[in-house]
Each structure stands twice: as C-alpha cells, then as structure tokens.
Amino acid sequence: MRVLLVEDDEPVAESLRRGLKRYGFEVEWVTTGAAALAHTGPCDVVLLDLGLPDTDGLDVCRALRLRGDLPIIVISARSDETDRVVGLELGADDYVSKPFGVREVIARIRAVLRRTRPPAQAGSGPDRYGPRLTVDRKAARVRLDGAEVVLAPKEYDLLAFLTEEPGALMSREQIMEAVWDANWFGPTKTLDVHVAALRRKLAGAITIEAVRGVGFRLEIAGHTHGDTHGDTHGDTHGDTHGADTS
User: Fold this and answer.
1) pTM for the full model?
2) I want to staple 166 with a disulfide (CB 3.0 to 4.6 A). Which of 51, 90, 228, 244 is the partner?
3) Main-chain dihedrals φ then ψ at residue 65, nearest 5 degrees
4) Cα–Cα separations (whole angstroms), residue 59 to 39, 54, 230
C-alpha cells in the first residue's frame, strides 16, 4: 500500500510515517502543495494536510480530484464543520481532524479503499487464518473447515476488517467508522449484535475478545499473531454466495 503524505509539520509527518510503516505501508512524504501536484510516482491514497506553506490544501484537493479518482483523505487541524464540508465537496473521500492516532488514520484508509477499489483489486485469492478459516476478499466469501459460512453483509465486513490485523485492539469508534460509515452517528449496539453473530458462526476458529470501555480484539484459535495471516490458496469450490441481504 503506497501513501503520498502531504504535510509540512515535520513532527506530525515523522510520527505518521513511522506508524504507517509499522503496518506495512510505503510512505512518500512531501511538504508543499506544489510537490504534491508534481508527484508522478505510483500511489494508492493521498493524506493531505490543509495548512500547507505555499497554497491552501483545499486547492490541492480540488486539483488532484480533477486529475482522477485517486482516494484523498484530508488531515487537518481545522476542525470547523465548514472546512470539513468544503473538503468533502471538493472531492476528498474522508476528513480526519488533528490530533489523531495512527490506528484511526489506518482505519480511515482501509475504509476508503474498500469503498473506492473495484472488487477485482481486493486480493489474489483466499486468505487463510489458522487451519480452519479462510476469507476470500475478492469473492466476499468465508469458509470454515472448507464449508461456506453464510454471513450477513455487515458480518462479513466486520470479519474482513478485524482479520486485517489479528491480535490488534480496535476501538468501537474505529470499527464503526471502517465497517459502517465514517460519519456514523447512531448507536453502537449493532456492533455487539454482529460480534455475537460472528462468535456463534465461527466458534472454535476465532475468538473476539471484548475490552471494556475500548473495543474488540480478534484472535485466531491456536495461533500466534505472526502465523495468522498471509497464506493464500486456490480454493474455488462452492459458488453459492456467502452473504445474505439482511
């Protein structure tokens, strides 16, 4: 995952670069709007500060959007609702207010990419989590011991999000933003309902630990964090859809 970071505040940029790199992101950092517009290298998403030294970040956002559909996430100390609305109207896909945590930024990046990437780019094959569970992100199907598990759409989205980082503690806010909507303002009780459904349907293959006052942590049964993810295989049997419409 390649990120273009447009940020003139060195401490903020260095902290964000280090954090993103820890999670496997490749980061190219520029400090001005002109450098952002001159950038020609490959990029999957732009993290764009609004308070740039040479131009208003909103103008950079507008110019980038006119060039194509590259995902843009605005990161700014401007928390005023007007700036947020203007940024989104100019073509930004999301808006994160400073101060922010690296995990929040990563959750926003993943949520934006899920909304903007064509399904064919989601992956080359099913991801295996331990000996029993596979998640095929390209086909949006889940199998337990080789048999397809029928999940509701949001149950699948929740599982796909939590299995991106097995063992990582995700806050309720991060999960709601990533799985439901970045602007979700409703109750989070629905999250508990979906967690309970995954626990029931995937019992023995995963555990989802509730951390009081924070959120949830998914663990792969019988595996350490370093062995839970990354093996793919060409399992293509069973062509029924793995998600209902509830």
Assistant:
1) 0.54
2) 228
3) -70, -35
4) 16, 11, 40
